[in-house]
């Protein structure tokens, strides 16, 4: 694609027309926060924390999906942008539990967000759903970012076991007819919790260790290896604590998996430490 010249925070930047605003800004070393965006998924434009201001545009635009255009005048940290990001964080923090969302405390400090000024705490109160042995669904932490739906759909697995049902405050992620996962079309690839940004979907091992107070990220190591089950060559990132494998992830930049796995790669390590 041909190059274009845009202005970012008052500075001219030459970039490629096939890049998004987010990609261009990251190449320039600018930190635009994201929650619903992930490099291996189609931008869903749901969380709106990545919005930026463009000259001549009435509304703020999502940097994760808007492609650059020649002559764009972009402001990434204007007063309007900062106020919007603050409000997004406050509304999310006042409605769901963000305790397992990485870096959310830093974002709250960065934008002066105070969720407590709305109602004093998370309003979604729902016990975690435990209907299988592999992972737990905790809707009290769900921000409806659509990542799990995309990973289950055309972006990765093409199983279409889950979708968003309901409207407004009743909207939620669910299986067809709200069946239990073992009775649904779910194939337990775990790609949904592999992309979840808030811990609403979490491996059973991690859930139980967090509940027992034994989950210690400072004591964990990550070892990259190759899945032994077939000849595809998927890379695995094994998270280990106290010489025990806790979960298997896959690197986003791996050209075979792009961060996704099948059930064997995601859960097939459990026999290693079976009693």
Please provide a written account of the structure.
- The chain has 275 residues and is an alpha+beta fold.
- The model has no long low-confidence stretch (mean pLDDT 92).
- Helix 2 packs across helix 3.
- Strand 10 and strand 11 form a beta hairpin.
- It has a 5-stranded mixed beta sheet, sandwiched between helices. Strands 10-11-12 form a 3-stranded antiparallel beta sheet. A two-stranded antiparallel sheet has the order 6-9.
- The protein folds into 3 domains: 3-77, Ubiquitin-like (UB roll); 81-117, no CATH class; 135-273, N-terminal domain of TfIIb, CATH 2.20.25.
- The chain has 7 helices and 12 strands.
- The chain is globular, with a radius of gyration of 20 Å.
- 33% of the residues are buried.
Category from helices, strands and their pairing: alpha+beta
What is the CATH top level name of the largest domain? Mainly Beta
Strand order, main sheet: write it out.
2-1-5-3-4
Second rung of CATH, namely the architecture of the largest domain: Single Sheet
